[in-house]
Amino acid sequence: MSISSAIEDRRFPVDRAELSKRLREVLPATAVLAEEEAMRPYDCDGLTAYRQLPLLVTLPESEAQAQAILKICYERKVPVVARGAATGLSGGATPHPDGVLVSLARLKKIISVDPVSRTAVVQPGVRNLAVSEAAAVHGLYYAPDPSSQIACTIGGNVAENAGGVHCLKYGLTVHNVLRVRGLTIEGEVVEFGSAALDAPGYDLLALITGSEGLLALITEVTVKLTPKPELARVVIASFDDVRKAGDAVASIIAAGIIPAGLEMMDKKAIHAVEPYVNAGYDLQAEAILLCESDGTPEEVAEEIARMTAVLEHSGAAGVRVSASEAERLKFWAGRKAAFPAVGRMTPDYLCMDGTIPRRRLAEMLTAINGLSDKYGLRCANVFHAGDGNLHPLIMYDANQAGEFERAAAFGAEILELSVRFGGTITGEHGVGLEKILLMAEQFSEAEIAAFHRLKSAFDEHGLLNPGKGVPTLARCREYTQTRAGMPAPIASHALP
Amino acid sequence: MENLIQDWCERVRAAASSGASLAIRGGSSKAFYGEPEQGQALAVGAYQGIVAYQATELVVTARAGTPLSQLAAVLAAQGQWLAFEPPHFGPTATVGGMLATGLSGPRRQAVGAVRDFVLGVKVLNGLGEVLSFGGQVMKNVAGYDVARLMVGSLGTLGIVLEASLKVLPRPVMEKSLRFAVDEVSALASLNQWSARPLPISASSWHDGVLTLRLSGAAAAVTAAQRKLPGDVLTEAEAESFWLAVREQKHRFFSADEALWRLSLPSTAPPQNLGPTLIEWGGSQRWLRGGDPALIQAAATQAGGHATLFRGDEGLKQSSGVFQPLTSPLARIHRRLKTAFDPHQVFNRGRLYRDF
User: Fold this and answer.
1) Confidence band (pLDDT; 50, 70, 90) for A481?
2) CA distance B216 to chain A (A)
3) Which of B112, B149, B216 is the closest to A203 by Cβ?
4) How many angstroms separate the CA atoms of A132 and A226, rounded?
5) What's the ipTM?
6) By three-state DSSP, how is residue B80 classified?
7) Per-residue pLDDT tens over the stretch B215-265
8) Partner residue opposite B220 with nearest CB, options A174, A296, A422
9) Which percentage of chain A shows pLDDT scores above 70?
10) In terms of domains, do A360 and A439 share one?
11) Domain B2-169+334-340 belongs to what topology?
12) Distance from B290 to chain A by nearest Cα, in Å?
């Protein structure tokens, strides 16, 4: 697949030879890659449908080197795209053809772990799970746990405002970061937030979190550490009807319970996962819910009893509680392996990321089944049900002519529905390249223009990650006009 | 209601073209906070009402003029609340003022601040446009997080018209404990306890007395109570104590001196700058009186910042309310102001004097 039109709109004249020479003057020889073969591994992120070689790849080993790169690029008006572990699913780290890709993989030091203040200071290339591993000796951990936590890095987590399966209770990245140190596109060091709980002036820490590398380059992050709960147990409930499962989610919340995790999988996802990891899921079920409680043993016992009662009352066909930590991990293994399990069933898949009000989960599932028939493509569904965040996995074969386009159109319809249901096109994966045109579905032209002005406040020449996150106004108009000529999306009659 | 917005759009456009400044006023309960008001008053309190509330979604959407007391009552009827315990500072407090000042109460140490609970906003910007950012769902990363940016911006970026907020169920049980301890030991204990999975939802130290509040499942509160020292307060005592801390009716706040708020790392040592009340496990320290330059320098030295929370005009004039920003941050602030309010219509000088 060629690069997206969004990138094509943002091209820059760059003297590659001169740029390369200048970068080599300030960086170690191993920190600049220019050969196609060496740059090839950097041509995409987790959204492999988009591949693009950058002009050059740089691998700074210190903040000072990163600063030197930015100053050189800024002076020449060269685009800069930051990259962590490239596990992102929206093309946020797809290189720019005229730009320098800055891999932060070598900035991977855990600078400090302070058990008294319950904070860790880490470089952006530190893996999410490595923070929890370093803190474990103190009985602490870093709460956000995206499914890619073995590989994904803190810098990328901040850029995407990563979530995970425990964010209903423990929050997203934005709730678990105290301070971000970074560089402006001009190469100036800047600190957002502080070692305290807040900082004077505007909440730029919140703004930088989830900004997809469009506002600054991250060089250091102070994260909050959370005391590890003494105990966690999970309940699995199986349902013979997705509607009952959806209602059970609402009933748990209505009972005043905030589960540590509340996940849902539909039949296709269960059938993808079970042969792969033998998690012990009910293959007869139309949907299962995983509902976790954590805290002191007394607290967990009390909460599990209440959860079980609500689930049974909601018509669960079967309810099982993990009897040991090993069994709890086994129950979760299925959910955590959902993406690779689906990956075994199909040559390619697209992972969607809409969020909707919880009460519309069942309605959305029904609509997705209809779309699956319409496009002739299979779709397995895993949901962060507690916060209404859906991950439909649309299966396709890129080698079959037209299948990628059909999968993309299927995905776009799901996201359009998410917006119509009062939700959003992306809960935690980011807009990147993938959903850039769909921004026009969610935001008015005036709102998109406000985003562009905000971006200019940090980066007036538009050099940081150009062509991502926010569409040009011309593309918005084009999208809106095209949409106006198309038939109404499926299930729109069900709207209030 | 919608013709109110129409009127304000016209006021804003007129002010923009004449170079005038508008001072946004909700309930004026927090008018004391920040740099002095400038320009013509624009009363926005009439834009009231709860737009949507479904308890099982854990989200409420309310117009900014909605009194906080009314919102609290509606949530309480469903056993829910704004978990960050926003201070009202008077019966006229509104949702808009809560967002503009970004102030959180005693429970902030356990659950997070106002900004952590804001999911979406509708704002009127300095071009007279009505814009929506964020939404009504828990997770949303489409576009920049303008909703959180509005929190604490003191109305300098626009008029918040409506906000969607995450709400939480009230805990099943609360118990407060009190015991005598000096400041050094109190800070050490607070930090130690915070590193353990204990359900501490608030803490306050003043004048040799530490008060803790435990909240959560009955079993968790009871178990924690056994692990911690102190005498248990009666329910009425506890309620009035935490309300007094939140609303600054505690006797510490009654003196007629300047009041400083120091936001510091929880582990920062005692500052010894004057009479002190500590909250948030050591992260928020209130200080009465004292030398402004010394206070600001000490806060910076400790890794935090100081705010002149209450003070007379003269003192605000000489020391500034908010600590100055470093040069790249100051530049980003000025440009953000321009991005939302290019003609400097809103609350000119209220946050920093230069915009």
Assistant:
1) confident
2) 9
3) B149
4) 9
5) 0.97
6) strand
7) 999 989 999 999 999 999 999 999 999 999 999 999 999 988 999 999 999
8) A296
9) 97
10) yes
11) 3.30.465
12) 20
pLDDT tens, position by position, B161-191 = 999 999 999 999 999 999 999 999 999 999 9
First to last CA, chain B: 30
Tokens 């995983």 -> residue: A290
The boundaries of the domain holding residue A263 are: 231-338
**Structural domains of chain A, count:** 4
Contact, B339 vs A453, CB < 8 A?
Answer: yes
Residues A144 and A130 in one domain: yes
A124 sits in the region (left: phi over 0; alpha: psi -120 to 50; else beta) called: alpha
Out of A227, A250, A274, a domain closes at A227
B254 touches chain A (CB under 8 A): no
Report how far residue B142's alpha carbon sits from residue B148's, in angstroms, rounded to the nearest whole number: 13
Q: Is the Cβ pair A199, B305 closer than 8 Å? A: yes
pLDDT in tens, A318-343: 999 999 999 999 999 999 889 999 99
pTM, 2 dp: 0.96
Q: Do B142 and A431 touch (CB under 8 A)?
A: yes
- Burial class from Cβ neighbours inside 10 Å (0-12, 13-18, 19+) for residue A462 reads middle
Q: Give the span between the Cα atoms of A66 and A26, in whole angstroms.
A: 10
Whether the Cβ atoms of residue A14 and residue A55 lie closer than 8 Å to each other: yes
Nearest to A314 by CA among A235, A243, A390: A243
Q: Pinpoint the alpha helices (H) of A36-127.
A: 36-39, 63-76
The shortest C-alpha distance from B231 to chain A (Å) reads 22
